[in-house]
Amino acid sequence: MVWLDERYNTTGEGEPTTDVYLQRLSADGQLSGGNVRVSGSPLSAYRWSPKVEHNPARNEYVIVWAAYNIFGQRVTASGDLVGPKVRISAKKSLAYYSVDWTTTPRFGYVITSHDS
């Protein structure tokens, strides 16, 4: 599962800073391992709309989120990050309202977003 967390929000200023975290669960719903920060260094941006999806062809997960751009991070089945996060969007926008994605056999990853 993935969520937004403000545990590193130590700026003391009005704007919150959030990070995207993941937590693996076992087949019976128990926690497996610890929380993993996915989105990068603390205090770097406000993030929203994290999504996670399994890619069975590669037996890995991809997490996408918005942070004035759209970013993605590949994660192994054991919860390890694969390479650096990747900026997916071509332009910076203050208005990405939602991000979603899926996998397809022909194209691999298909990521969609909605902005104003």
Structural class: mainly beta
How many runs of DSSP E, i.e. beta strands?
A: 9
Largest sheet: 4 strands, antiparallel
Distance N terminus to C terminus?
A: 28 Å
Give an overview in words.
With about 120 residues, the protein is mostly beta strands. It has one domain. It contains no helices and nine strands. A four-stranded antiparallel beta sheet has the order 4-5-6-7, with no helix packed on it. A three-stranded antiparallel beta sheet has the order 1-2-3, with no helix packed on it. It has a two-stranded antiparallel sheet with strand order 8-9. Strand 2 and strand 3 form a beta hairpin.
Compact description:
The chain has 116 residues and is mainly β. The chain has strands at residues 2-5, 19-25, 31-37, 48-55, 60-66, 70-76, 81-87, 96-104, 108-115.
